[in-house]
Amino acid sequence: MKGYVVCVYKNISDDEKLKEYAIKARAAVENFNGKFLIRGGKASSKEGEKSPRTVVIEFPSYNEAIAFYQSKEYQDAHLILKDHAERQFQIVEGA
Predict the structure, then answer these.
(1) What structural domains and CATH numbers belong to the chain?
(2) What confidence tens digit (pLDDT) does each residue in 21-30 have?
């Protein structure tokens, strides 16, 4: 079964840090055969609070999504966002 990374941002305090993170994170996604399905874009909120950004990434398997998150390459990118963005980050097994 495929694995999905679902990131729902609550706030972003530094757009430049987000751009820097995105460049490094994208390389890690590609190295783990991930495919961006949603990366920002137009959105409307029908229930709950509106998010400034949502990202969904598909991986060939749940285990590959976990390996991506735990990789040094992604963790180095993740450190860039520290204190610059608040988000909910989930890894979900899909159908």
Answers:
(1) 3-43+53-93 (3.30.70.100)
(2) 999 999 999 9
